[in-house]
Amino acid sequence: MRHPRRSLALATVGALLLPFVVGVPSASAAPVSGEDVLYTLDADFDQGVLQDVNHDAPNNDQLQLNRQTVFFPYVNVAASARGTMVRIDVDTGEIVGEWLSAPDGQGRNPSRTTVDKFGNTWLSNRNEASGGKGSVTRVGVIRGGTRTNSDGTANPAGDYLKGPFGYNTCLDRDSDGLIATSRGLGDIRPWTNAGGADSNGGVTTAADECLITYSRVAGTNTRTVAVDSNNDLWTGGSNTQHQKISGVDGTPVTAPFSLGCGGYGGLVDKAGTLWSARYGTNLLRYEPGSGTGACLDTTHGDYGLGMDPQTGEIWHTQVNSGRTVKMDAAGNILGSFPHGHPRAQGVAVDMDGNVWVAHALDNGTNTVGHLRTDGTFVGNVVLPGGNGPTGVAVDTNGKVWVTNINSNNAQRIDPDAGPIGGGSFPVGAVDLTVDLGPGAGPYNYSDMTGSVLGEITAPVGTWSVVQDGGVAGQTWGTVTWNTEAQGSVPPGTSITVEARTSDTEAGLAGETFTPVSNGVKFARVGRYVEVRATLTASPSGDTPVLSDLRIKTSKRTGVFSCQATALNLAGIIVARANPPDVPCVDDAKAVANVNLSAGILTVRASALTAQTNQTPDDLLATPPAPGDGTSSSARIEYTRISTLLVNIEVGVIEASASVTCDAAMNPHFAGKSRIASLRINGLAVDVGSAPLTIPLVIGSLKLNSTTITPNSVVQQAFALDTLLTDVVLGEAKANVEPLPRERGGSPCRV
Fold first, then answer.
1. Which residue, of 366, 551, 559, 593, has the fewest CB within 10 Å?
2. Taking CA 480 as the corner, what is the angle to CA 476 and CA 486, rounded to the nearest 5 degrees?
3. CB-based burial label for 483 (10 Å; 0-12, 13-18, 19+)
């Protein structure tokens, strides 16, 4: 009987694992609105997408890894003879897409597939050896969305998918807000490789936006593809060269190496050891941590590789002996057991102690061997309509998939069905057959469902959420997590958090996740932010706990101040805009006429106005952008100043000051003023906008004065300084002021 955990775990991530049907609504909730949102309760976490994590009782209001990983509900079949990969929904048997395995003009003939921890599928191309290199390709995964035409209008047969998506790792390369991708079997989008643009790597000419990586690697005629706990990919080929490439962008992580063996097919075990079969002097066992390894002879097996998820023991078929070999993690042989046929290829081991052996590609072979991990032979599963089984893998429901190279189909085996065999266990029986179309030639001696990574190599889970910051160009500031007591990261476990942003929700698909540090500003810009937390277990099975996570925008570290004054006579203020000065606000004042006396001066003035303005109006609610700033201005139509010795008549007076965030997001200060006409005791003085100081018998007259400091500008059009009384006409000020505890803060920066 299958392990009972599966139905419970599937319910935990039901939102993500809904069958993919063209046109169904998104499987995830709408983006969460807010500039500062805390996720800590069950209902908060349910606003995101949970993959292999849960908040089940008694551990509510926190996230931890599922007891066993529930990997993605697909089987990814290399249609080797057609040069494509076909993805099948394991629940329904629906083929959800078909993709080329390499650009035009490059070698294809894919034979192995494996799945990374984000559901992407890597495949290797057996026919590529040009320039002494092989190749691997990665196909993204997308769930939910609505089929549309190129203009976004709904069409169930459309070539595009429009969000929101329940889950998406495909890339919106042309930033049109849509994902161009295959609808199903036979809908293979071109990959022109025009001008050889992608021959040495890249997917720039791929029409299908779920083709996300194409890399040239050291192993020629590449077969081995195996994902490690870091989500990087080990590759190997017929020249026994092995190399690790990045799970982020497909670039080399290690230099190539060869011990003279392996490269035919492989896996990475719980300890991170690479096992790679068959070429040269047979089986490679390599420990990346120490950089040491060995070649194991054919008594250890010589073809298919599988691993017991419970014990970590390695199973290795012998292609012509009728037996399969069991080894411990150090490579010591623990036994050799018959599996019901003289030949064997792929092998897989499930959570319930069953070993499944694909018997052979020989024409006429139509069985899969079933034995127990203690060596008990249970029986052969007959494959009605199946011919030439080559690969086997266990899906997320505990059922077994087999690919049949001669009958161009894939079949699903129910382990609980069929007659009772050896050890009183059910033999198993086929409960679903999926036609892959003529000329498919499926091979798939590999981890085509992701079970090896999901249940053995890297027990991981993710939680992701999209948050809406409300305005385009929003600046996101910090992601903070595990501030509550129940949050924990035991030794050997980890929680990594990544973010990506875009001004549209659909545009997130075209952006790359980048790591963020706990509570440290990361300053990504865009209305929407998507944050993904990845929880990884220790080799001993300990799980980290994510107790809480908060996503905040980044606020400006300062504000603008501003003020404008039409007239100031010895502290008597007439027409002042924004009297508080800090912070700046939009304001305006106007006075028709005024007649004042102070000390030796009498001042008459008409049409006095003052105005202040700030862009944007709500400074702290919006992120900084070039052009943000403040301005102040003052104007007087006519002024007459009288004393016993001096009479001054002034025409139109105008003064303005401003501070603006420039393209480099630094404050730029400016001030100017103008005096249309000036008469002193009836004598005309030409002033305009140039600064000028005039000595008078009663004091000093200073005109068009601009004072700029690192944080302010003050513009005074007219300032008369006497021993007894001062008068200022037309004064404008603009400043930047740091917020409390923000030394050196500026409204132009976060």
1. 593
2. 155
3. middle
Residue 11 pLDDT more than 60? Answer: no
DSSP tag of 29: P
For residues 284 and 263, what is the distance between their CA atoms, to the nearest angstrom?
8
Which residue, among 97, 92, 11, 7, has the nearest Cα to 431 in the 3D structure? 92
* Tokens 């000051």, located at residue: 657
Cis, peptide link before residue 459, omega less than 30° from 0? no
- The per-residue pLDDT for range 571-591, each reduced to its tens digit, is 999 999 999 999 999 999 999
CA–CA distance, 189 with 463 (Å, rounded to integer)? 31
**What is the SS3 assignment for 385?**
coil
CATH number of 74-455: 2.120.10.30
- Please report, for the chain, the start and end positions of each structural domain, with discontinuous segments joined by +: 32-68+460-553, 74-455, 558-738
Phi, psi for residue 28 in degrees, rounded to 5: -110, 165
CB neighbours of residue 28 within 10 Å = 23
Please name which of 553, 504, 513 lies closest in space to residue 165, comparing C-alpha atoms.
504
CA distances from 577 to 413, 580, 583, 639 (A): 80, 9, 12, 19
CA angle 306, 280, 456 (to 5 degrees): 20
Topology given in CATH for the domain delimited by 32-68+460-553: Jelly Rolls (2.60.120)
pTM above 0.70, yes or no: no
- Amino acid identity for residue 368 in this structure: V
pLDDT band at 502 (very low <50, low <70, confident <90, very high): very high
- Is-contact 198 213, C-beta < 8 A? no
pLDDT digits (tens, 9 = 90+) for 69-114: 556 889 999 999 999 999 999 999 999 999 999 999 999 999 999 9
CA distance 558 to 1: 65
Q: What is the 3-state secondary structure (H, E, C) of 293-338?
A: EEEECHHHCCCCEEECCCCCCEEEECCCCCEEEEECCCCCEEEEEE
